[in-house]
Structure formats: C-alpha cells, structure tokens
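Q: Entry one of two.
A:
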Amino acid sequence: MKDLGNLKYLLGIYVFKSKDVLLLNQRKYALQLISEVGLSGAKAVSTHLEFNYKITSVEYDQYIGSSNDLELEDATTYQRLIGRLLCLTITRPDICFSVQVLSPFIQHPKTSLWEAALRVVRYIKRSLGLRVLLKKGTESTKLIGYYDSDWASCPNTRRSLTGYMVKLGDFSISWKSKSTSQ
C-alpha cells in the first residue's frame, strides 16, 4: 500500500475536507457532460423539466394514433446521456426526480425524451456550483424519514406513485420514488 496523501478526487468526485466540513461536487464531470452533448453555447434554464410536461411511451403513442413524436433511430446516445446523468445524481439530488422520470424509456426513446434530457443538462449548466456539503454538528445523528404516495397518478400506466426520503441530520442519505402496481 502507498499513502497518496489527502483525498482530492474519487471516481470523478471532487472532495474537500476541513475540520468541520466535507464538500463533494462533480463540477468537472458536469462541464465535460455539457461539452460532450454540445450544449456549451446553449442558454441555461432554471428548471430541469417543463411544468406539466407529459411523457408518454412509444406504445401509448401508437395506441392513440399519434405520429408527431418519432422514436430515436439510435437509442445509444439517449442511453449514454441518461447513464451520465445517473452518475451525476451522486452529488446532485436536485436532478434525481428528472432522471427517474426519463430513465424508464431507455429502450425506446423518442425525440421529446431526448429534448427533455437535454433540458436537464441545460439546467445543470445553470447550477454548476451546487454540491453536497456535510457539516459537523449536534443534529448530525438525528435520523428522519419522510414518505408520500399519490394514487393512480402515472399518466401512462395509471399506477400509484410512492416515494421516500431519509435524512441523517440535515443531509439526505437515501431517497427513491417509484411506480407501484395497483
């Protein structure tokens, strides 16, 4: 074994540690993602998804006879982008919901889904400074859990949506939202 000194980078995550603070961010990774997608010159947006944005599957569009939103010819670009966004959620819990909404369509992505994923990247461009900040404190050992559900609210399947979040002190340590069968 070899001592490499204080930890600075780990799996693309910048780590800053002081006496009372631990800071984690992926600014370099986010800048690389923005550049690879080709949005370096694009205008940033203040929200990660449009308000009341309805996402539908290819099967649903075929069922209702809609043909204005075509399936992408090459699904790998969408799959790669969603995978990169998933990696970014480690230090960016603000985009977790958007990525969770876009990821079920990874096998058959449509043009509208690609545009929605690019909007998430444009949101990241606006908020590059966001990071996870962990502080020492007296409340750091208090464990709090939240749970919520919404009956039959998924527009595609009419399944119920549930979600939870667990906090240790002021910091989120676990969260998930999912569609459940009725």
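Q: Entry two of two.
A:
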Amino acid sequence: MPAILLLASCPVFAVALELPITVTLEGTGEPVAGAVVSVDTRNKPTPDTAEIYQKNRAFHPQILVVPVGSSVDFPNRDNTQHHVYSFSPAKTFNIELYAGRPEAPIVFDQPGVVELGCNIHDQMQGFVVVSDTPAVGTTDDAGQVTLSLEPSRSSDSPGRIGLEIWHPRLPDNTRPITVEVTTSEPASVSLSLVPEAPAESSLDLLQQRFREL
C-alpha cells in the first residue's frame, strides 16, 4: 500500500510531441528551403542577442529568426557605407549612413516580419522574423523541420494544430500563412511562391553612374 500511495503522489509529466514537417512547392513538389514554421504555445521564448552583418553589399544572414524582445546588431563589414532601415509595422527603424558598428543594437519588441533595406544599395534585402513562441524552426535544403510541441490542452482540438508558415517568396511576404495539420503523423504542406527574382548586377545603379562620369 505505501508503495502504491507513493506512486500515486508522484507528478505525471506529459511528454512534448515531436512533429516532423515537410514544406514543398505547389505544382512541382520540390522542397522549399528557408521557410519559417512555428506553432503558438503557452510558453514564451527568452530574448536573445544576434547580428546581421553587411558584406559584399548583402545582409548575412538574409533571414534571421529571433525571439520577441531580442537585440540585433548590424555591423558593416564592407568598405563602403550602408544606411539600414525598415518601414515594417513590427519594427520601424533607421540607421543612417555608417561604417563599422552602429552605436546601439535594434530591439525587436513586437512579433512579426520585419523587412530590411539599404537606402544606398537598392538590391539589398533582408528579413527579421520576430517570434513569440519557442516552437519555431526553419526548413533545411530538403524542406524539412521538426518542431517540439507542448502537450495538448483540454480546449485544443484533439490531433489538430495550426502551423504558421512564412517564406520571403510568398505572394504577401509581410505575414505568415496559417495551415491546419494533424499531429498524429508527419505533416506535409505545399506553398505557392512567386518566382525567384533574377540576380542583380554586382554594381548598383548609383555606382554604375559614378563609373560613367
């Protein structure tokens, strides 16, 4: 009897569910790399620190996923100045023409998709995806990612969950799309994406004009 009582008094911990997800291109079935996939959770992520540096007139990485509240630095490693900005509702900011490291990092205090640009080099484009859930990941070259999900709540639909998926080539890349999937088997999602933009010349238009003077 004492052993039974001891067993009954021990807390029972629900085990998180590992959900494999594959994202493919609609119409071709080709894997889609770089898709950000997330699931809303009760737990919230811990803010972090990160950086997006500029090199060869490009943002590295082009897509950065950070928890809400994170600080991101934007060091310039080019031999030319940059002017980094964003007009996105999730974070509007402006780092005027600079070389080296800006005076302070940018704090991304609201969830959402933040598109980055450079006021000097129009071809530069980057994204910060600010997430308010720890259950987030980015698909690899095979279009695959595995998310660790919380145990379901009594109010949840049994075996169903809503995935939020974002990719820079979505027709509207200012926000993720939501797809409902079952958690009883690996999930497969097909995305409709706009064609990839042609590669830009190694010189932006402003510098080309200078060379022609």
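A: Comment on entry two: Residues 44-132 form a domain with the Immunoglobulin-like fold (CATH 2.60.40.420). The radius of gyration is 21 Å.
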